[in-house]
Amino acid sequence: MTQFIRALVLVPALMIWLPCASAQDGLDQARQLAQSGNTTEAIKRLDELTSDDAGLETQVQARYMKGMLLLGSGDNLGAKATFQGLVDDYPTLPEPYNNLAAIYAAEGDLETARLLLVSLLEQYPDHAVALENLGDIYAKLAADAYERARNLEPTETKLAAKLQMIGQLFGPTG
Fold it and tell me: Quick one: which of 27, 72, 105, 143 is 20 to 30 A from 33 by CA?
């Protein structure tokens, strides 16, 4: 399945917190390691920043950044666990919900993705990316239903037209 919903890269809700200089240095070091392609070392550095010695804000930012690095490196299982942990521990932060939904959607579990986005939107009804992603989920669910209907009624021309329209949005369906 083509990935069609987008994960958030930044954590705007967390940017209001200002971690101490050493914590910010640690986050900057991890970011630099990741940008230079050393994801393994970046994740190790982020794991150090999630200790009890680090402040809460730093711990949350480090966990979020780790999830993004895992996602970017193709470790969906690790990213999913990281974002789920953030959702469980900080249920009022919107970004982990959205990114978790993006992972589930990429895996084809559209219902779980939909539920996560609906939950996010109950808290933040004007979250534009979540609204867009929920629309994408509904479009994909519609395409799946149209495809099933077309298989049952192959001569129904309206179904082919509807599938073509969705295909223009996301590429070939199915």
Answer: 105
